From TrEMBL:
This is Vacuolar protein sorting-associated protein 51 homolog. Residues 1-15 have a biased composition (Low complexity). PANTHER family: VACUOLAR PROTEIN SORTING-ASSOCIATED PROTEIN 51 HOMOLOG (PTHR15954). It holds the Pfam family VPS51_Exo84_N. It comes from Fukomys damarensis. Belongs to the VPS51 family.
Amino acid sequence: MAAEAAGPGPAFGPGDSPEGPDADAPERRRKAHGMLKLYYGLSEGESGGRPSGPDPLDPIDLNGAHFDPEVYLDKLRRECPLAQLMDSETDMVRQIRALDSDMQTLVYENYNKFISATDTIRKMKNDFRKMEDEMDRLATNMAVITDFSARISATLQDRHERITKLAGVHALLRKLQFLFELPSRLTKCVDLGAYGQAVRYQGRARAVLQQYQHLPSFRAIQDDCQVITARLVQQLRQRFREGGSGAPEQAECIELLLALGEPAEELCEEFLAHARGRLEEELSALEKELGPSPPAPDVLEFTDRGGSGFVGGLCQVAAAYQELFAAQGPAGVEKLAAFARELGGRYFELVERRLAQEQGGSDNSLLVRALDRFHRRLRAPGPLLAAARLTESATEIVERVARERLGHHLQGLRVAFLGCLTDVRQALAAPRLAGKEGPSLAELLANVASSILSHIKASLAAVHLFTAKEVSFSNKPYFRGEFCSQGVREGLIVGFIRSMCQTAQSFCDSAGEKGGATPPALLLLLSRLCLDYETATISYILTLTDEQFLVQDQSPVTPVSTLCAEARETARRLLTHYVKVQGLVISQMLRKSVETRDWLSTLEPRNVRAVMKRVVEDTTAIDVQVGLLYEEGVRKAQSSDSSKRTFSVYSSSRQQGRYAPSYTPSAPMDTNLLSNIQKLFSERIDVFSPVEFNKVSVLTGIIKISLKTLLECVRLRTFGRFGLQQVQVDCHFLQLYLWRFVAEEELVHVLLDEVVASAALRCPDPVPMEPSVVEVICERG
């Protein structure tokens, strides 16, 4: 057992020595243990899975470097019983076998690697021997080459210096030859028109001739060249002044003259003067197109011609000027800017004159396309002519045209609204002239509302073209802010709504002015139209405008509530005026019927007067007319005897009691006193009270005005007995029919009571007719 615990089996690696197995056994075990730890990547404290706590000098530590088998065995024999010793032996044998197997595997694997490394080293030694031989041969060849190079350099040294000198002499002779041939070359170039080549020759020789002009020969060449150069300058100026060639050739002439040393200031003036002439020709051609004799081209064609002709020429002039006269600095830039401002102003004036001819047109698409091209073409010279501010001027023109178009569309909406009103007037008058029934008020209202709304949408679509994404000027601050908010929303839409309200209110003038000739049905229709605008249309139109024109301007705008309040006030005024007009019509009939009759000598009444029947008929017609546009409204609860009053108002004991004191001459109390006492206890009737937006309120106002007029006319007349009885019959007839139209039937009772009472007060012989007779006459009538 001790021998087995002393170490592993007899396996050994290639590097181990077979001699002295007993002496080398601990060393071999330590090496094997270290190799295992290295292979498995274990640290000193991780080997065997044990903690690093035990003392490394402990002789009984199996994994320690100072393990002593004898001490370990003695300790086991002393401390462990026999069974535990047997178990320890079995476990130790198992561990030794496992370690033996691992050791053999590790050794065999490393052995293969060592063999492979040995072969590799052997091959490297052979390869390096061949490489050393080749390097030796290369060094020998380089030495030979160096020796030959040195010998060649030494041999050619004298010849190289002579060749260099000869080459210098040759170059100098060629320059001299060029100088002596320069006059003839210049003359030939001038004769052939090769002005650029002549200027290049002159430029090459100028410095040399200037430097050696003190030598006679060079002085003669310089004099000849100056004469030829003067002739060249004269021909270049002549060619430039003729102007037969294009702008590039003109710029080339100026460039050659500058290269020949001509004054830049003078050439600049001549260049701009010549460019002015060509551009003025373009402007004259455009101005002729605006003349009255030839038919003017459409605005798109006009802007295309101006852009390709004038603006294109101006861009070429600016580019050539900056290329030729860039050395003049800010003064030259300002001169070019003044030149562009002057001619650009004339061009803008022509464009505005042509655009003014389009203000009456209805097609915005062609105009916007023309403005877009006009603006795009003037953005091209922007960097070249920044000081002239042509782009800003073009943008201002586009903005002015946009404002004018907004005004044009606003005027168009106003004209369309007036046209709708004219159509309504004609539709209302046509049935009366032809004797047939025309369209109803509801149909006319629907037609007017739809026509106005369609015109508004068409105007919004037309002006929306100015803000389209593909338009070059749509991203300008004006079209992204002020145009949308103050121009379209406030100027066009809000302006038209307010104009419509003002036009409608103008029909509310007093009689004898504009309102005197206004059909009452038109007033009623306009009132309903404004009320519909207040309830829904205004909010819809402004919402549509805000959605189409995304307003990015913070300027204050008119709230929807303000416009709705204005429209409601207009509707109220129109409806009130309608009540007054219709009440005036009925009042005129009643007034004439009272004033034209002799009430003192009238006959005993046998029927209801025709005017009272006409009043009931007209009131019924008004009720039908108002019912087409307005709701019924709310009436107060009728009294239980309403049906009886319908047939016999004055037959009830209440009515007999009411009129008995007034109509009985032998009454013990004064009738005037009784009438005044009765007025004290009756509610005051406001004839011109505010009218609400329903049929009952409208009819109540008309009937109050009519009956109040009747009352006032009766107070101005004197009645006989039969005259009083006729008034009694007429009032009973009105009572039979008018109570159903008003909000409160008591109002009709009170007013008619006052009419009969006033007639009785103005009658010397106030004898009323029996109620039964009155009922019979009214039923028969």
